[in-house]
Each structure stands twice: as C-alpha cells, then as structure tokens.
Amino acid sequence: MFDFFKKAALAKFSKNADVPPAPPSSLPLGLRLGGAVTIDALPFRVLGSALLFELPEGNQVIESRGYIDLGQGADLHRFYLSDDAFIQVSTQAGTVDEIKLFQFVETKHPNTRAALEAWLKEDSELGRSEVQLKGKSFQRVWGDASLAYSPPVVFDEQVFKTNAAKPDYDLTHYAMLYEREIPGSERLEYLLMSVEDSGPNDFCVVFSVGVDISAADLEII
Question: Which residue, 4, 150, 173, 147, is CA-closest to 78?
Fold first, then answer.
C-alpha cells in the first residue's frame, strides 16, 4: 500500500490536524472574487497552432479563487475564470514574482481510491522525467533532472467561492510541472499535472496547459 498517500490523507482529515494558514488580506494585481479580467491574446496569436490550447477571450469573470501557502513568505494565488482557465500569481513577501495562465485540458476520474493511489507510485506517469500530451513531449521542471522519476510536490489549497474571506473548501494537490519549448519562439508552454484530493470520495487527476504572461497582458475590471 502507498504509505505516503495514507499518511497525508489521515493528517488532512484528522481532528488534530493543523489549522490551515490564513490567506493575506490583500490580493495581487487587484484581482478579486467576483471581479473580471480580459487577457490580451495578441502576443500569442503569432504562435498560431503551436500552442496546445487557446487563450480565453472576452471578459472573464473570476468565479472562484484559491490560496496556497508555500512557506517562507511565498504564496500562490489562483483566480479561476469562466472559460475553464485560471490565472496563477506567485508572490514573495507580497510582491508579484511571476504570472501564469493555465487552461484545463483534461480531467480523469479514478473509480476507486486504490486507482487514485496508483497515480502516486513510481511507475505512474506523474513524476516521470518526460511525458506526452497531444503528441508533444514535456520535460519535468521540478525534482532532480538526473532521475527518471521524482515524487510529486504536495501542497494544500483553500478555495473561495461564495465568501471572499472564508474558504468554502480545501483540497490537497500532488502535482508536477513540465515544460516544452515552443518551436520558433522563445516562449515555453507548461503542463501541470495534479492529483486533486478533496475528500474520501472526491478526487480526480487534472491536466492543465499554460504559458507565462505579464501584468501588461491583463485588463482587470
């Protein structure tokens, strides 16, 4: 059996589990729950079909947001948009470090928790040094590059949907980030694979593809 997964799950649902850290009172870039944002797709149109996804168009309502405390003053803020996409803002001591835009491209629903645990073993796709998506090869970003397998990075996310100050629920991610060079461009395209565990019978495996963007690419409403 997969002891690591079990220990993490027991800690998550234990009455004695640590209280999750409170998210910061201010959010980066003026993004907020219930607000809207328009993404400038012009810089990416020159790439044509080289990207594996299309950027969301028009005004995108921020339908929910996520907060992840990475420790030592580092935070991830996720703003989930109308068209199955999210903006991820990394901050360090409250200062924006980087911004990525991800689009959800595939979700798998294991039938049992045992099937989910299989995704977290060394012989699974998650954690390999190279993975394939839509005929393209992506190289692992996190972990030791010399190893054929690296365990996923584990972190908890608080998700806010109905109340900007109080999370509606939380989930645990077992994630790995991959990247590939986009031909004819200096840009990278990312693949984020994540086992998402929201409870004993609520779990899935999510594949998201994304790119780096800047604050100048965003019109925040």
Answer: 173
Intervals of the chain under pLDDT 70: 1-25
Q: Which region holds residue 72: left if phi is over 0, alpha if psi is between -120 and 50, else beta?
A: left
At 13 the pLDDT is 37
- List the structure tokens of 130: 């190279």
Q: What is the pLDDT of residue 8?
A: 35
> How open is the CA angle 169-206-117, to the nearest 5 degrees?
85
Supply the DSSP symbol for 221: -
CA-nearest of 147, 149, 153 to 121 is: 149
- State pTM to two decimals: 0.87
Q: Provide the number of structural domains found in the chain.
A: 1
Confidence at residue 199, expressed as pLDDT on a 0 to 100 scale:
86
Angle at 109 between CA 108 and CA 115, to 5 degrees: 105
Burial of 183 (0-12, 13-18, 19+ CB in 10 A): exposed
Domain that residue 68 falls in = 3-25+32-220
Q: Which neighbouring-strand residues pair with 210? A: 102, 190
Q: Among 87, 129, 116, 95, which residue's Cα sits nearest to residue 174?
A: 116
- Helix and strand numbers (H, E) in the chain are 3, 13
